[in-house]
Amino acid sequence: MEQYTFSVPTVFGLEGLCADELRRLELGNVRAENGRVLFESGPEGLARANLNLRTGERVLLRVGRFPAETFDELFEGARALPWEQFIPRDGAFPVKGFCLDSRLFAMSACQSILKKAVARRLGEHYGLETLPETGEVYQLQFSVMKDVAELYLDTTGPGLHKRGYRAVGVAAPLRETLAAAMVMLSRYRGRDPFCDPFCGSGTIAIEAALIARNQAPGLDRSFSAQKWGFLPREIWLDEADRAMSAEYQGEYDIWGGDVDPQAVSIARHNAQLAGVEDLVRFEVADALTFHRDVPAGRVVTNPPYGERIMDKGEAEELYAGFGKAWRGMPQGWSLYLLSSHTEFERTFGVQADKKRKLYNGMLKCDLFQYLGKRGERK
Ligand SMILES: C[S@@+](CC[C@H](N)C(=O)[O-])C[C@H]1O[C@@H](n2cnc3c(N)ncnc32)[C@H](O)[C@@H]1O
Questions:
Q1: Which residue, of 51, 220, 281, 360, is most buried by count of CB atoms within 10 Å of its CB?
Q2: Ligand 1 center from residue 259 Cα (angstroms)
Q3: pTM higher than 0.70 for the full model?
Q4: Which of 34-38, 83-87, 126-130, 247-251 shows the lowest per-residue confidence on average (mean pLDDT)?
């Protein structure tokens, strides 16, 4: 079967996790770069990656890669690629992309040159002066980096963080891909109790439930490439079967709490949409009184940072109060807390064992990690 190169863009900082996911999916020649992960596979790999990836943003199929320092080189390089093998006579092919560290730096000029080059190639092949573009969408995505152009087709459509379960949002929801990454970094496998005491719309707890059950996050949504004629139809059903047969059945102790009753009812609704309402409990609860008596477990959470929901002073008071609650917890518990607040550790009152930089949208955050000590004392 035809082999392709794919690129999966990720949020900065998640490349390694996404590469691990792709290797676990048994995809070939996986390599992480800045902001993206590449792999090689036949067409089944694009269905597998779209259905299963938790931390990647989208799956792009590479049509070509060539040096381009001038508009002429960009035009001729794009025109030389076999677009007719992918895009049918009536296919729509909008173009978007970016330029970085290159002689070609005008994004919109590159965009229109690429549109013309692909249209010329397809027009010559199909014998048409004007292409109708009335059929399925083949979103063309380009990058020009260090004077090298890469041209891709976007197989995903709406980003992979759109799992389809978050119908209504709250004030500062966490992107599903980042929530899944936090759960994966906590090494949660479904065994110990799992809590998010600032759960908002429930994203972290819902992603934890999907991970505990090893449920593919993309099973309930569709992807652009499902409508592409050059791909074998059966890859989607085959890969959905493969994903479903890898699911576990089990009982899990996953809990989310929030002081805001409206957030809690949204979280319950989202859990229903995700099909995990039997695995996660949501309750109205104040994180300042958070406590568990069982010796070990995990807290993975995203409290207000003092940026969008509260002011800095209020956030500091909250961290101090939650720090007090945390110090009363049995020592086998671990905490993974995401905040952009630079004074988090001081106000929380405990230094983190480890920190990891993660971006929540444009906000530079730290994932503060407090590692539980197993079997020392309750
Ligand atoms: C940044 S949001 C969490 C967003 C969530 N991760 C999501 O994806 O929707 C922080 C949440 O903390 C809640 N909160 C603020 N103070 C709290 C407290 N004392 N106890 C529990 N929750 C609190 C807010 O109501 C808000 O929903």
A1: 51
A2: 7
A3: yes
A4: 247-251
